Amino acid sequence: MHISHNIEDSSLKELLSFSYASIKSSCGVFDLEGETDIDIRGKELVMERSRYAYNDAVEFFEDNFLSDITSLGIDIAYKEDGDSIEEV
Fold first, then answer.
1. Residue 86 CB neighbour total at 10 angstroms
2. What is the predicted pLDDT for the residue at 85?
């Protein structure tokens, strides 16, 4: 979203917050500041959903990223159970 001014900062922070809540609700908890594969993929989905929301197209996000959302949710579930994906 190549924005070169700070007028929309509070609105963009709100979009990011809403997007994080939405992805977390669909997939599970991840750390936006984390460096694990799960954290990076979660952060990317938050950014993508925010981009869709910013462009008034959030209704298309889930269909376009369904495989990424599902994959992240499964990986988070395995992590929470203490299993690694390699063991499956």
1. 6
2. 54
Condensed to tens digits (0 to 9), the pLDDT of residues 29-73 reads: 999 999 999 999 999 999 999 999 999 999 999 999 999 999 999
Integer CA distances (angstroms), 76 to 1, 9, 29, 30, 69, in order: 28, 30, 7, 8, 11
- Print burial letters for 18-45: b (CB count within 10 Å at least 16), e (below 16): ebbebbbebbbebeeeeeeebeebbbeb
Rounded Cα distance between 60 and 51, Å, is 11
pTM value is 0.84
If you ran DSSP here, which 8-state letter would residue 60 be given? G
